[in-house]
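Is 5'-O-[(L-methionyl)-sulphamoyl]adenosine placement plausible here? Inputs below.
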Amino acid sequence: MSSQIHRSYVTTPLYYVNARPHLGHSYTTILADVFKRHRSQRGEKVTFLSGTDEHGEKIEQMAKSQGKDCLEFANEIAQDFLCTWEKMGISFDIFYRTTDSNHALAVQHALQTLKDRGEIVFREYEGKYCVGCERFLNDSELNDQGFCPDHLKKPEPRKEANYFFLMSKYQNALIEHMEKNPQSIRPEHYRQEMLSFLKQPLTDLCISRPKERLKWGIELPFDSKFVTYVWFDALLNYLVATGWPGKNWDKELWESVNHLIAKDILKAHSIYWTSMLLALGVKPAKELHVSGYWLVDGTKMSKSLGNVIRPIEVEEKFGRDTLRFYLLREMSYGLDSTFTLEGYINCINAYLANGIGNFVSRVYTIAKKNLGTVSFKENELTETDRNLLSLRTKTRDAWDAGFTELKYQNAIKAWSELVTSCDLYVNEMKPWALAKDPSQTQRLHVVMGVCLRMIQSLGALIAPVLPNTAKAIAIALNLEERAFEQIKNGFEDRTYFTLTEDVPRLFPRVQIPAPETD
Ligand code: MSP
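Reply from A.M.:
I modeled the complex. Tokens:
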């Protein structure tokens, strides 16, 4: 039975525990958080899953190199991810770890089901194996030098007998699914990329690793000499977290899933995962949202390449919420983007310090100093006042359209334009001059009232992206934070504001640090 309230399920990838959280992981996690907060504001009930992927050769190798037991090692890094997201105020509901015993049982159930249905067979295979990707690569996937394009390493030749999931059977079903469901992979060019990949014959998927080579994994239920391939194990998390295969499986939640990933794991999600679900008789994921990479110095940021930016360090240095704003504003969703310190600082100064920060402190200072309590009547609003106020609906529609179309940049730009319109209004109304003229006191109330309404609405709109800023605005305006929760049907307009707090200093200007000299 479907409930009245619309539900959504949003997931990040389960991050490997061979690296500490960096900016790349933060982007997807922040985006999932923004997604949840935005949809919750529009009245949906959203469940947000993140977590860690803890098995496989990479993890085993890294634990060994540090002289640690695999689980002890995984526990440390999983804790690091969990604490990072908590410190950053990420609103996840489920933190999933693939080393949980419940997960292993569900993975074994899936494997046994597919084996019993004849979907898994045993055979010998020879190919080129990339440990970074944890899989065999086809020649067509290698770069000109014969290297893995993501890990910039030559894959090792390997020959071994293994279990295979008969993924090739699903080639036509995958094409049909992608063609019938244009929303299933977004933005569109990634769906086209996968459809064109599926023009080549699809191979079967090797889903086991012999224990003599890898012990750190979930044992196959039908052959104790093997463990499960880490991707087959990890992908199931999304479904298992909804209660599958138990009696209380929340099918409705599963069928509302939006997987957020970057393009590095597009194939694993759109091809492996979808065919696994089809084979298990479960409906494929509703939507897959695929981002490009954050680049630093022209290459993908990753632990193996050593060009890593730590989100917590950046937040501590440049202020809460600023990273969220920059990442969403800077990246054109689906394409690669380059992180530069200079760009980040310029963005903070231009849109946050000089933009909303300046507007709020300017209005608050004048209103508090001259009025303390702002009070006016609806019929005192002039046409210019109403025009400014009416821009909010347009901005909210542009904002929502940006989210629906995965054009987050457009949403943020529309919001920044509204801040600019507010600034222009203040410049035109000259409240500092009204304050000097006793005959204009009531007009000052109206002008300040309009500005405070605008601040309240700007806070409500931006709350998913700048939750701490929205909170500070709510406190300054003596509003309950709840005021920002539901803006589905418009903005809650007031004719009365009491300003008893200190002037909010939302975003101090940031200086570009001088280059370090050795
Ligand atoms: N463990 C697998 C995912 C299994 S999901 C069932 C994995 N882990 S990962 O730690 O490598 O994370 C990859 C994901 O981290 C990307 O898909 C993306 O969400 C995020 N990013 C990591 N580096 C990134 C960039 N430089 N840029 C953008 N996103 C990046 O793959």
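Short version: Residues 13-16, 24-25, 27-28, 53, 234-235, 237, 261-262, 264-265, 291, 293-294, 300-302 surround 5'-O-[(L-methionyl)-sulphamoyl]adenosine (CB under 6 Å).
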